[in-house]
């Protein structure tokens, strides 16, 4: 028998009753009851009951759960509560045997800890809760791209192997590049700014790298970032875009992913817009009222953000940070040069995104680099593009993995990444 499928399980309908189909998938359960065997067959689209009778049942032999099979049979009505139809098997071919016992129980009858599941990640994808998280991630990416295209953004892909630190940070992985020192990119920042010269509005969804030795449920050394940069926009304009992107993601998955929400036992509710916008100065005042010893100009600690997050549940923008806390490329406010045209998007205490208006004057950029102890000579390739007519521009970067944890209602970012990389995990 050929193992080519004629239908996915989800495609079985009343019109197919009495007709022959070939299904392919894995055996989730198998029950032998005298002269009959009931097989629960699953594929990526759904689940079906298979009835095995007569000679085929007599010659069935031993088939382990999770083995991959091809089944030819006739679609028929069923009395089973959990199935709309069943298939009476005519031929069964075992395409790949599964060992017994398996290192992870995909049905979830025996629970495994997160590290055991990650060590056997491919098998973990047969767990419907896990699979649903990654189906949701797929739909989130679909929604993001759709919204960006509608807003006239052009998708780009920037280098991940770079010759100098793109943001002047210390948390970079270095490598030997044919005798020259190179780094893994921690963001597309400088490249996406340069692209506004000709493309005006650009976005990138890609993996980036940060050599940060953090051991928390929200940090990764390899993470997926959603980045935009837009010419002729101020930071408040790109904040509006970020808000609309988040709202559209929630709308899309809440309407189109009902089965996945059932599987993860979490209802996705669209957040209320507009998101609240509070200033850094307001945060300092709130922290002082809460009894915290913090002064204007100090960075906000995790403990501070937890207090602010309780005061402002859900999504909110934290804007107008002090200039000295922001990267060299961020522009100051015209009315107060000590403050920046910048923002973070928070969900409670969790930072999801950071962005702002960029400097587009090369002389000001050189001065800012020196102020922050960076050598302008290391940024020559970037600075020269500003002499070619750099438009004013703004942008942001959004952590997809962190957004996914909020969307699906879990607090460990490793649950929403296929093969996460952190200081303790390099394999599989």
The main sheet orders its strands as 6-10-11-16-15-14-13-12
Structural class: alpha+beta
Percent of residues in beta strands: 25-35%
User: What's the total count of β strands?
Assistant: 16
CATH superfamily of the largest domain: Bira Bifunctional Protein, Domain 2
Give the helices and strands, then pairings.
Layout: E1 20-33, E2 36-43, E3 46-53, H1 54-58, E4 68-76, E5 86-96, H2 114-119, H3 121-124, H4 128-150, E6 154-155, E7 161-162, E8 174-177, E9 180-184, H5 189-195, E10 201-209, E11 222-231, H6 235-256, H7 258-264, E12 276-279, H8 280-289, H9 302-311, E13 315-319, E14 342-347, E15 350-357, H10 362-371, H11 380-383, E16 393-399, H12 400-408
Parallel strand pairs: 3-5, 6-10, 12-13
Antiparallel strand pairs: 1-2, 1-4, 2-3, 4-5, 7-9, 8-9, 10-11, 11-16, 13-14, 14-15, 15-16
Helix pairs in contact: 4-6, 4-7
Question: Which terms would index this structure?
Answer:
single chain; 428 residues; alpha+beta; OB fold (Dihydrolipoamide Acetyltransferase, E2P); BirA Bifunctional Protein, domain 2; 2 domains; eight-stranded mixed β-sheet; five-stranded mixed β-barrel; 12 helices; 16 strands; 27% helix; elongated
């Amino acid at each position: 028998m050929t193992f080519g499928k004629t239908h996915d399980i989800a495609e079985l309908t009343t019109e197919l009753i009495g007709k022959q189909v070939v299904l392919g998938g894995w055996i989730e359960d198998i029950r032998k009851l005298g002269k009959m065997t009931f097989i629960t067959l699953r594929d990526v689209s759904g689940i079906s009951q298979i009835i095995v009778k007569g000679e085929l049942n007599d010659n069935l032999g031993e088939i382990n759960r999770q083995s991959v099979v091809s089944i030819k049979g006739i679609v028929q009505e069923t009395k089973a509560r959990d199935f709309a139809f069943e298939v009476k098997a005519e031929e069964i071919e075992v395409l790949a045997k599964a060992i017994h016992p398996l290192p992870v129980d995909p049905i979830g009858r025996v629970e495994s800890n997160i590290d055991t599941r990650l060590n056997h990640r491919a098998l973990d994808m047969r767990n419907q809760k896990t699979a649903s998280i990654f189906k949701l991630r797929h739909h989130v990416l679909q929604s993001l791209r759709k919204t960006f295209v509608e807003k006239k953004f052009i998708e780009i892909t920037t280098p991940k192997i770079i010759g100098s630190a793109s943001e002047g940070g210390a948390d970079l992985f270095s490598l030997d590049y044919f005798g020259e020192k190179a780094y893994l990119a921690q963001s597309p920042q400088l490249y996406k700014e340069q692209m506004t010269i000709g493309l005006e509005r650009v976005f990138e969804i890609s993996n980036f790298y940060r050599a940060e030795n953090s051991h928390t449920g929200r940090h990764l050394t390899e993470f997926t970032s959603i980045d935009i940069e837009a010419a002729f926009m101020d930071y408040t304009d790109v904040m509006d875009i970020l808000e609309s992107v988040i709202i559209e993601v929630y709308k899309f998955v809440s309407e189109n992913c009902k089965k996945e929400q059932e599987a993860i036992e979490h209802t996705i509710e669209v957040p209320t817009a507009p998101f609240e916008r509070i200033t850094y100065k307001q945060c300092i005042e709130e922290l002082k009222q809460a009894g915290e010893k913090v002064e204007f100009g100090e960075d906000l600690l995790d403990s501070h953000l937890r207090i602010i997050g309780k005061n402002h549940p859900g999504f909110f923008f934290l804007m107008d940070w002090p200039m000295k806390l922001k990267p060299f490329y961020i522009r100051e406010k015209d009315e107060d040069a000590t403050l920046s045209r910048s923002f973070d998007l928070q969900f409670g205490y969790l930072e999801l995104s950071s962005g702002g208006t960029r400097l587009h004057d090369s002389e000001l950029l050189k001065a800012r680099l020196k102020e922050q102890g960076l050598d302008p000579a290391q940024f020559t390739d970037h600075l020269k593009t500003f002499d070619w007519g750099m438009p004013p521009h703004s942008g942001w970067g959004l952590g997809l993995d962190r957004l996914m944890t909020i969307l699906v209602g879990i607090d460990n970012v490793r649950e929403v990444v296929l093969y996460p990389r952190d200081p303790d995990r390099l394999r599989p």
